[in-house]
Batch of 2 targets.
Target 1
Amino acid sequence: MTRVLVLNGPNLSRLGSREPEVYGHETFEDLRARCIADGAALGLDVEVRQTDDEAELVHWLQEAADASCAVVLNPAAFTHYSYALRDACAQRTAPLIEVHLSNPAAREEFRHTSVVSAVATGTIAGFGLESYSLALAAIARLSA
Ligand code: DQA
């Protein structure tokens, strides 16, 4: 069974209460439940994690690279400036899909840059929690 780490960066634990007009009313636990249910339907073994800590996220990406584990990554604000995260993503040994709930290209200028996109397999943004479902479906197809 293909293993997938769904990794989430800073402030994503606050989904539901955090700027609901931008990120919606569903909580991080809703996100976790959706990813696990989608994974079960797609034959993927999905684990969902969240951290506010850049070093922890880098370590999880290194763990995924060592295990040839596919990754769905919402780097949150780290997207826009973390070269450490970008370098960790560049070490990937399996598909890595960058996801965003909102469409950063349609928001403030500083969100228009992703330092991660160039080293990801691809990017899915702007579909709310559905961005994660689409990314998991893509990983299932890529791994078939
Ligand atoms: C986000 C977009 C980022 O710009 C922002 O910093 C986030 C969430 C998204 O999922 O839409 O924290 O990654």
Target 2
Amino acid sequence: MTHENKFGMFIHWGIYAQSELQEQVYARYDWDKEKYEALALTFDPQKYDPEEWVLLAKEAGMKYICFTTKHHDGFCMWDTKYTDYNIMNTPYGKDVLKMLAEACKKHGMLLSLYYSNPDWHHPKSYNPKSSHQWKCVDKEGGDWEAYKKFMLDQITELLTNYGPIYTFFWDIPPRIEDRSLNEYIRSLQPGILINNRGCDEGDFSTPEREYEGSGSSARFEKMTEACNSIDVQSWGYRKDVEFYSYRHLISSIDKIMAKGGSYLLNIGPKADGTLDPEHAERIRKVGQWYRKMEGCLECHEADDFDYGNCSGGEYIACKKDGKTYLHFFNGINSTAAALKEYPGLPKKVRLMNTGKELKFALQIVPEFFNGATGRAEHEYLYIKDIPVDDLASEAIVIEISW
Ligand code: GLC
């Protein structure tokens, strides 16, 4: 992702919101087709006001919104000519994507589109090579060429009728190598960025949820956009929600961004179109942390100086405009951070979380000693009085001006 647009809002919204269970309720709760597809006959989000969504994203410091135009259920959230199973044939009957695109344009928010490869409604869609094909209607009648034509027709609508599109988020790799799809997308929107869940490697990769598993703190080699939902169990609206802790989400975002990646944080709006205030508050609060970082999460490079182990804990060092930023993505467990090596004496040390200066000194720290002699090692750069207990749910970022 281009460096200035690092933080985005993922929105999973469709007829499944009425179940208040999960976006894949049709498969995961094993509903039958009639029961599931009847949700289209009652979808009537009278309180839908996309500006509410866009303004929340803005407040959180987000620069783009990625919207589910068609999830695995095959239901289309725009006015498409290529299937009747779409928003125009609900009691609501309005193009919700168009309304969102207009709200984004009004508020300077970029728009990205999610599009699922699996389609549990289109009769030709079955593709045995791909996962998530559980509910495809005709497992004998899958026909990639016919389904591909349908997808290209829909993509033409999506990429010509809704203004500039920032990224295209394919979901679930079809495991069919075919570069012509992404080439076609680029011919319609030359500046677009495409993820790696389509028919070729695309522009960016999409680690999901388990950021802890990504291990090392080395920077990403390929453009990367991680994604996660505020709800552990679902991307669509779920009443019986299990929220991730702020600490977990903020750590995840800080770590991904310090490694050079972008981050999509998901919320699932309710069936009436509104955001559950408690869910929205989660986005807002993560955004409060993000905004305190004052842009240090964007456009930075790796700081390759080896500061050695730090008493504060695990960190990733970045630099921007001549300053070093130490990202303690899991927080700091004590009130000081002692750096073993340092290129010189800092001019100033600042805690990004509060904007306040921190005290520092080059000094002996008695716990770092030579095991053979019992004598303290050389002077460390000792950054002190960090208000860690007030920041218990935050990743901590320290700015050093040299
Ligand atoms: C997974 C889920 C899907 C969700 C997507 C978001 O693929 O199966 O429901 O839309 O993650 O990245």
